[in-house]
Amino acid sequence: QVQLVESGGRLVQAGESLKLSCAASPRTFRRYAMAWFRQAPGKEREFVAGHIWSVGMTYYADFVQGRFTFSRDNAKNTVYLRMNSLKPEDTAVYYCAAADNSRLDSPTNYDDWGQGTQVTVSS
Predict the structure, then answer these.
(1) What pLDDT, in 10s, does the model give residues 31-82?
(2) pLDDT band with cut points at 50, 70 and 90 for residue 102
(3) Using CA atoms, how far apart are residues 87 and 108, in angstroms rounded to an integer?
(4) How many Cα atoms sit within 13 Å of 1 on the Cβ side?
(5) Beta bridge partners of 51
(6) Do residues 8 and 21 lie in contact, with contact meaning Cβ atoms separated by under 8 Å?
């Protein structure tokens, strides 16, 4: 059974915006934390943004610099990543993930992953 399904990735030009979606199963949506990661070709998977439900806190990687926003829709069991002012270096496959601990920035702490959605930013 697929627990997380990402969508919304596509080719955009630098400076444009994009909103990614991640539809979760009800069980997965209720896990302790959910996050977005990304992985560019030849690079390791890196943390983008994460949210801990119990405290209502969202954390972002330094490179986000206020450009991305994590949000959720409880009625739809869906989390989103709104990305503004996209740069070519944002090109990557974006994944959402869920975990039962607070180590948001480490991919090894997540055991539920989606299949990813490709975001390509042209210069």
Answers:
(1) 999 999 999 999 999 999 999 988 999 999 999 999 999 999 999 999 999 9
(2) confident
(3) 27
(4) 6
(5) 34, 58
(6) yes
Can you spell out the DSSP letters for 62-73? GGGTT-EEEEEE
The DSSP code sequence of the chain is ---EEEE---EEETT--EEEEEEE-HHHHTSSEEEEEEE-TTS--EEEEEEETTTTEEEE-GGGTT-EEEEEEGGGTEEEEEE-S--GGG-EEEEEEEESSS-TT-GGG--EE---EEEEEE-
Residue 101 has pLDDT above 80, yes or no: yes
Q: Which of 89, 78, 98, 105 is nearest to 19 (CA)?
A: 78
Whether the Cβ atoms of residue 28 and residue 14 lie closer than 8 Å to each other: no
- 83 in Cβ contact with 26 (< 8 Å): no
Burial of 22 (0-12, 13-18, 19+ CB in 10 A): buried
Quick check: 90 and 108 in contact, CB under 8 A?
Answer: no
